[in-house]
Amino acid sequence: MMRERFTTIASRLLDEDPRTAVVLADISTDAFKDAALAHPDRVVNVGIREQLLVGVTGGLALAGLRPIAHTFASFLVERGFEQIKLDLNHQGVGAVLVSIGASYDRAGAGRTHQAPGDVALLDTLPGWTVHVPGHPDEAELLLRSGVAEDGLVYLRLSEQTNARAQPVRPGGFLTVREGRTGPVLLAVGPLLDTVLEATEGLDATVLYAATIRPFDAAGLRAATADRPAPEVVLVEPYLAGTSAGFAAEALADRPHRLLSLGVRREELRRYGTMADHIRAHGLDAASVRQRVAAFAAAGAR
Amino acid sequence: MTTTWDSRLPLDLVARMTGDEKHSPAALSTLDALWVLYDRVLRVSPETATAQDRDRFLLSKGHGPMAYYAVLAAKGFLTPEQLDGFGGWDSPLGHHPDRTLVPGAEIGSGSLGHGLGLAVGTALGLRAQGLDDPAVWVLVGDAELDEGSNHEAVAYAGAVGLDRLHVLVVDNQSATHGWHGGIAAHFDVAGWSTATVDGRDHDALYAAFTQPHPGRPHAVVAVTEPKH
């Protein structure tokens, strides 16, 4: 589980690096109990106060620390969004924000605990590195690299995972499967296994992104270079189309077609399981395969 | 620098921005309190502006920063000439301050209700590095306290006894619905040390600023004439 890996590694980073601090708002505090005993001044739980969570994070950074702020994505990114804009970006300081819950992890909790718009919101601000790991090993690597740098880093953890970790490096897209003439799919984080299953037996290229910002435009251009008019499919585990503008910009000088799959904008107003929600958003392997086929057929007409 | 209030230097400096030589001190509710802080309390100067153990002053109420810029100029963080272009394309001095542009400014502000949270984090961050001596001051307005983010910070800082944190509330009675029971009461119930003084009386301000407050954060409410 990514959340457990995060709390374990963040606790270790508190031991290893005196610049690190963890800021909490009553979520995951049990998992940081030992770390709080060992480092009472660097594990801060502000209570159920998410504006203060981000404000304190900005203040810790102003004082020279490398803060890691953590709670559910909806409360971390959406509730105090102006704090992110002003207490981090505008102050010119860095921080690592680590969210859980993602888009549909808590299907039974309903809309209040779902944040499919988090990456799109952060896209309104400059300078953010956005990691969307698909496996706990990737989450660990990206957390460590995020804490080691000084900038603005968002690490989006999910309960949905791929069976195996990919040899990711912070930044560029990985080519996981290479086709010759078919569509080029970009699978983001926990949707890689879905995309691999959906394209089984097709002449498709599958790229993988555990880091979606900055957007690896050069990687997408290279993967589509052989095709005169590439068909590009984005498969993102958050709001559909979040990266569409970035892909369009990367391919602005060549004819191409773009399909953006992701979480639908409309509220589901249904509970159930994560799998139910994945199906409802058309992000299960069968739905992805069908939608890619329809996209290809539309282009062939 | 040993500028005294009698020299009227801050007022003259304010006039460089407002262009009004007769500008009433009544319109500058923060000027006296800022002056006493920078002149007699804060241990920070242009030479120590980046020292880790400096005192921090965070202007949360970024509206109407002319008094702040004037005091920064009087204390040598800015040159008097820099005040002349206030708000212009070529000036680092905006109608709301930007810390990356203004020498000596600890935070950028303008949107109300951000300074206290940043000040709490700054105080925690200094303590986490073993810097128990530097004081962190944040100036908020009485109307600014309407923003709920302040109350998250006030309740938390009081609960954990963050005693290097100091809040200066300049109360010119501009909050639309007022503060029932007075502003200090709202800090008091949250566990803070408080003092309420005449915001134009320099000696009273100094006494309130330097009042001991072991184990508790400290709030000074500086009452000025009502905003017109």
TrEMBL record, chain A:
Identify one Pfam family in the record. Transket_pyr
Q: Which Gene3D superfamilies match?
A: 3.40.50.920, 3.40.50.970
Locate the Transketolase-like pyrimidine-binding domain: which residues?
2-165
Which PANTHER family does this UniProt record tie to the protein? PYRUVATE DEHYDROGENASE E1 COMPONENT (PTHR43825:SF3)
Name it. Answer: Transketolase family protein
Species of provenance? Streptacidiphilus monticola
TrEMBL record, chain B:
Where in the numbering of this chain does the Transketolase N-terminal domain appear? 12-211
In terms of domain of life, where is this protein from?
Bacteria
Q: Which InterPro entries match?
A: THDP-binding, Transketolase_N
Q: Which PANTHER family match?
A: TRANSKETOLASE, TRANSKETOLASE N-TERMINAL SECTION-RELATED
Q: What is this protein called?
A: Transketolase
